[in-house]
Amino acid sequence: MLSFIRSDLAQLIAYTPHPGGAIDSPRGKPAQIDRVDTNESPYDLPAALKEKLAWTYQQEIETNRYPDGSHAPLKQAIADYVNESAQLPDSPITPTHISLGNGSDELIRSLLIATCLGGEGSVLVAHPTFSMYGILAQTLGIPVVEVGRNEINFEIDIPAAQAAVANPQTPPVRVVFVVHPNSPTANGLTPAELDWIRSLPPHILVAIDEAYFEFSQTSVVSELLQHPNWLIMRTFSKAFRLAALRVGYAIAHPELTATLEKVRLPYNLPAFSQIAASLAIGHRQELLGAIPEILSERDRLLERLQPLPKFRLWPSAANFIYLRPNLQDPGAIAPTLTRITEELKAQGTLIRHTGGGLRITVGTPEENQRTLSRLQEFNFGD
Predict the structure, then answer these.
(1) In what order do the strands lie in the sheet with 144-147?
(2) Which pLDDT score, from 0 to 100, does residue 13 have?
(3) pLDDT digits (tens, 9 = 90+) for 164-197
(4) Structural contact between residues 281 and 77, judged by C-beta atoms closer than 8 angstroms
């Protein structure tokens, strides 16, 4: 390791992105590659919207000029959408409650810088969950406190979390990350978890990731104004079909969003991404119209896989499902997961091996049928 690099980074495992269709297999590259491993929408933007974006790029965007660093028009559109989707009377969410990031990852990093940097705090996460909370904290030298989850419904181990928060460690827990619904396990926050985050003291920031809100249609945004220590994160990468353009947003108390503005990089969101997000939110009825089909396909996958004794499945409140091999020997689970992942990959189906199980995105009906057939045919005894 180069001597000028921080020694603790040697132990850090970077986030591994999906292969993007690059499959090396002794059998050769499959004719059809189904990317059901990253929880994206299976549908691209409609051609008419792509054409409109292309026209805007050609006619309106000056590539020699910096983008709008205030994000003002997009913040207003997002505030309107948040109020509308939550049916909030009197539209209490305003642009001052919104902060934009180059994907939610940048927002996570900004809130960590704003709260825990300089040895002032640690973060609490419940495993398994989205790995970037821990990875980003570690890149900043921020300690990560991990607790477990109930294997029946993946509820956070609340007594362990309470003990971690109460522990007078140095540095103390200053940020708690929860996901609603969680990835990879697809479960929403339970009543007990909601009661717990409501009870957390005001000196602890509760970061609630609602990346899959449009699929779950369950949010805590109606309670946000009662809790100045809450921050909700959402994204345009999933239901709004803009994963390639990296637009995430936070909803929080204006003092907190003003602080995030202080620590974010200037001109962090390209002009094209801002225009695409504004266009998507303006055509939300059309884009979100695909959600009922995706949820129906999700339920069909679960229904068809449920009778298979070789898999253990859990309910899903998102656009993906989570399962594990139903094996008696705990030591056989990890190699079996690897074998399933590699076997399906060789056949052209990319799924995610994470959190001690398999996370499978709901794709098109044709993709889902291929995924289903390949899982049904997989033989644990091979």
Answers:
(1) 98-101, 248-252, 230-235, 205-209, 173-179, 122-126, 144-147
(2) 81
(3) 999 888 899 999 999 999 999 999 999 999 999 9
(4) yes
pLDDT at 382 over 80: no
User: Per residue in 5-23, pLDDT tens?
Assistant: 888 888 888 877 766 555 6
Query: How distant is the alpha carbon of residue 298 from its chain centre?
Result: 18
The count of residues in the chain is: 382
Contact assessment for residue 19 and residue 34, using Cβ atoms and an 8 Å cutoff = no
Place of tokens 């007594």: 159
Cα distances from 133 to residues 57, 111, 204, 214, in angstroms, run 34, 11, 16, 22
Specify whether the CB–CB gap between 134 and 141 falls below 8 A. Answer: no
Give Cβ neighbours of residue 28 (< 8 Å, ≥ 6 apart): none
Listed in order, strand segments (DSSP E) in the chain are 34-35, 98-101, 122-126, 144-147, 173-179, 205-209, 230-235, 248-252, 311-313, 320-325, 349-350, 352-354, 357-361
Is pLDDT above 90 for 28? no
